[in-house]
Design goal:
Layout (H helix, E strand, L loop, with lengths): L2 H4 L4 H5 L5 H9 L3 H50 L3 H6 L2 H42 L1 H49 L1 H6 L3 H49 L6 H54 L15 E9 L9 E9 L3 E6 L5 H8 L7 E6 L2 E2 L5 H5 L2 E5 L9 H5 L8 H10 L3 H4 L19 H14 L4 E5 L7 H12 L6 E5 L11 E6 L2 E6 L1 H6 L3 H13 L1
Parallel strand pairs: 3-8, 3-9, 6-7, 7-8
Antiparallel strand pairs: 1-2, 1-4, 4-5, 9-10
Helix pairs in contact: 4-6, 4-10, 6-7, 6-10, 7-9, 7-10, 9-10, 14-16
């Protein structure tokens, strides 16, 4: 900005009346031409070096700060998801959670960075404003009014469109992520149903909505960016025209006034750059404001749904588990899933839960495992209320094998030792033998180090089920729950596993849920459930002779077998 001034031989005549600058130019005018050029070159070199250093640090901060902020936000969201209640996952789609936990932090980091950018540009604006105010208070007043009106005009016409476009982008991204997630999870069904065309249309609609929303946002920015620059330039020209009206007809006074006006215009023009940056930062904030607010709502939901555990630890041994007036009702259901369940399960006892689908068997298991909390009633572990127990320590004492297996896209070894530490090879082999897995494990290309694929895709359904059983046995829990754990096995594998599991009878509490009643004949007690209630209880032979629901279920299965 000062190069044209200090290089001008008549600068003292034009700018000499301006405070401070006039003094500087008076001293500069005493130098000869070569000294003036040397001074100008030295001054420019210092400014270039300082500017380069400043720009480098600004660029580094601009790269590292958003990344660090995003990392903290993503990890906070992910930790929150790991510690919330199980019901929260039932009420929210995976694609929605992915967007809110992974993608929203990126937008919030951009907002926070641009807030810092606004502060930086405001500082520059204040510096240039102080300069133009020092040069001419009158012209500063005129320019300030014009700039304020300009900023208000731009905000009124751009703020809501940018916020709406940001919301549309977020909604479209959620739909796109949900479509993609369900495609990956349900690819087998999609192929079996020849539904590739349907899924393509679904994803294409979601992606098209995302592109249209993004296009809309970019067009709004494209329109208001040049528009703001044009209007701002008009302000500079307007200030020059208005100032010219105050020039005196006297040539000497006109020359001095022209120096002030010229320096004022230069400073005002420099002020436009941070003003434009300020407007661009504001546009980014408006565009990402919905995602930022939605992330804040997401964090509030995580806090509200955070699992709260007791402080009491489980004893070294578990002698009994009691359910006292236990009831549970899902939020979206009118009827209770469980009603006034009262049972006592002793150490070493094998209990079977049977009944039609929807009778409450799996709900009872979820309550016993601490996944969900009862609506009313209590679960007592050796007379200690489960609500007062440290649930992570309780889950170390209980193992659940469900019909729906979940295997990581990792090695067989890591799937078996998932959540465990310091597991030796001998223990792994013993668990695999108990679950009748060794025959097919020996045939795997890399043995225990074989990568199983997404959700264990490289194994058959029965093999996945047996790996799940082995994983539970490897953790050596005091209570083992089998929720239709052998439903995917052939009769030979099922019989062999049952014989191995019966060896645990008397050592551990075994709770078995099964629709095939032949698998529960050896249970010490069979609890027959219907509509959330226990309607019958007893040994297999006693219930078989009784003309009740159990005997009816037996006859029905015998008819099917015939």
């Amino acid at each position: 900005m000062l190069m044209p001034i200090i290089s001008s031989s008549g600068a003292i005549d034009v700018f000499g009346d301006i405070p401070l600058l006039g003094v500087f130019l008076t001293d500069l005018d005493k130098l000869d031409t070569s000294e003036r050029i040397f001074f100008a070159a030295s001054f420019m070199l210092v400014m270039v070096i300082l500017r380069g250093i400043l720009l480098f640090f600004v660029a580094v901060i601009g790269i590292l700060l958003p990344i660090d902020i995003q990392r903290e936000l993503v990890l906070d969201g992910y930790k929150g998801l790991l510690n919330i209640s199980y019901n929260y996952y039932k009420e929210n789609r995976a694609g929605t959670l992915l967007t809110r936990c992974i993608e929203h932090p990126n937008k919030k980091a951009a907002v926070l960075y641009n807030v810092a950018n606004i502060v930086t540009n405001l500082c520059l604006i204040l510096i240039y404003f102080a300069l133009i105010l020092f040069i001419s208070p009158l012209m500063t007043l005129v320019a300030s009014i014009c700039v304020v009106l300009l900023l208000l005009l731009v905000r009124v016409f751009s703020s809501n469109p940018l916020k709406n476009a940001g919301k549309e982008i977020t909604d479209a991204r959620v739909s796109m992520n949900n479509a993609f997630h369900q495609t990956v999870q349900g690819i087998k069904l999609i192929k079996l149903r020849n539904a590739e065309g349907y899924m393509l249309q679904w994803f294409d609609r979601a992606y098209e909505n995302f592109l249209q929303a993004s296009k809309k946002s970019q067009l709004i920015n494209a329109a208001f960016g040049p528009g703001f620059t044009t209007l701002a330039g008009s302000v500079v020209c307007g200030a020059l025209i208005i100032a010219s009206l105050f020039l005196s007809a006297d040539e000497g006074e006109t020359t001095a006034a022209f120096g002030q006006i010229l320096l004022f215009i230069i400073c005002l023009y420099r002020l436009l750059t941070p003003a434009i940056n300020l407007n661009q930062a504001r546009a980014i904030i408006d565009n990402n404001s919905f995602a930022m607010n939605d992330y804040d709502v997401f964090c509030q939901e995580l806090t509200a749904n955070r699992s709260v555990y007791g402080s009491e630890e489980c004893g070294d041994t578990i002698s009994q588990v009691n359910c006292v007036d236990l009831s549970y009702q899902y939020q979206d259901k009118a009827d209770k899933a469980l009603q006034d369940i009262n049972i006592t399960i002793l150490s070493g006892e094998m209990i079977a839960l049977v009944g039609a689908s929807g009778s409450g068997k799996s709900t009872l298991v979820d309550l016993l495992s601490g996944i969900m909390k009862p609506t009313s009633g209590r679960i007592l572990v050796d007379d200690v209320d489960l609500s007062n127990v440290n649930i992570p320590s309780w889950r170390k004492r209980i193992g659940v094998v469900s019909q729906e297996t979940y295997l990581l896209n990792d090695s067989l070894r890591n799937n078996l030792t998932f959540g465990l530490e310091n597991v030796d090879e001998q223990s792994i082999i013993h668990a695999l033998e108990q679950a009748e897995c060794m025959e097919f494990v020996k045939q795997l290309p890399d043995g225990l180090d074989t990568i199983l694929g997404e959700r264990g895709a490289k194994l058959s359904g029965g093999q996945q089920q047996r790996i799940s059983i082995a994983r539970t046995l490897l953790s050596n829990p005091d209570i083992i729950i089998f929720d239709e754990a052998t439903a995917n096995l052939d009769s030979f594998a099922e019989k062999a596993i049952q014989e191995n599991l019966l060896k645990l009878k008397g050592e551990k509490i075994l709770i078995v849920i099964a629709h095939r009643l032949s698998t529960v004949k050896d249970a010490d007690r069979i609890l027959v459930m219907n509509k959330g209630k226990i309607v019958e209880e007893g040994a297999h032979k006693d219930l078989e002779r009784k003309a009740g629901l159990y005997s009816e279920l037996l006859r029905h299965q015998d008819l099917i077998a015939e």
